[in-house]
Amino acid sequence: MFSGIIESLGSVQHIESKGTNKIFTISHSYGEELYIDQSISHNGVCLTIVRIGDDSYIVEAVQETLDRSNLKYIKVGDSINLERSILPTTRMDGHMVQGHVDGMAEMLSTKDLDGSWEFSFQLSDKTDLLVIEKGSITINGISLTVMSIKDRVVTVAIIPYTYENTNLKSLILGSIVNIEFDIVGKYVINYMEMLGRNEHYFE
Predict the structure, then answer these.
(1) Residue 73, Cβ density class (10 Å: 0-12 exposed, 13-18 middle, ≥19 buried)
(2) Is pLDDT above 70 for 81?
(3) Closest CA to 102 of 62, 69, 146, 71
(4) Left (φ > 0), alpha (ψ -120 to 50) or beta: where does 169 sit?
(5) Which pLDDT band holds residue 202 (cuts at 50, 70, 90)?
(6) DSSP category for residue 168
(7) Are both 138 and 181 inside the same structural domain?
(8) Which whole-number Å values give the CA distances from 33 to 4, 26, 55, in the listed order?
(9) How remote is the C-alpha of 93 from its chain's centroid?
(10) CATH number for position 62
(11) Residues facing 48 on adjacent strands
């Protein structure tokens, strides 16, 4: 479980294909704090460390993960948002993030407001039901508050600290980002759909 508060930016040093999987070597600034089998969020995708080097570690993404996320577009030299899983004693400064990406979105526009930025992203069909104004959404692993949602276009406001310390600053028009919707909303939608399929379920 994560909070959507990015700890640091990593850099992709090497990418290797292994069957339908991809193996990523990621540089990091965690020092000796990492360990084998640790879960780390990469642009919002939870991956497990399988090997550790002096200043890098290795993770492997399977086909399902690649199909659902922008990891399939990552290139050597790209920056990637990193967050370790939260501790029971950690303050929840963001919101509950599973690291299970629901899908991707395309960046449509960005606006410099001389002190903050607005980013707009195009969501896929029907997913706008999972987004509400002033609710939470995770974009590339970052916990953000929804400014507005209209015609499947979600707009978020970015403060200077988030802009400077995540890979949002490297996005261009057409960039593909990972999206994870609020887990509470997903459970509510699933519950309502279940009732619609079987209205006598609880009788």
Answers:
(1) exposed
(2) yes
(3) 69
(4) alpha
(5) very low
(6) G
(7) yes
(8) 20, 15, 11
(9) 16
(10) 2.40.30.20
(11) 39
- In the numeric block, which tokens belong to residue 62? 């399977």
Domain that holds residue 21: 8-84
Alpha-carbon distance values, 10 to 99, 131, 182 (Å): 17, 29, 25
Residue 21 covered by a domain = yes
Element of type H or E holding 104:
strand 103-112
Look at phi and psi of residue 3 and say left if phi exceeds 0, alpha if psi is from -120 to 50, else beta: alpha
pTM equals: 0.91
pLDDT in tens, 11-49: 999 999 999 999 999 999 998 899 999 999 999 999 999
pLDDT digits (tens, 9 = 90+) for 164-187: 999 999 999 999 999 999 988 888
pLDDT of 199 higher than 70: no
As beta bridge partners, residue 27 has 11, 56
Question: According to the model, what pLDDT value does residue 11 have?
Answer: 97
Q: How many domains in the chain?
A: 2
Alpha carbons 132 and 66: distance in angstroms, whole number: 27
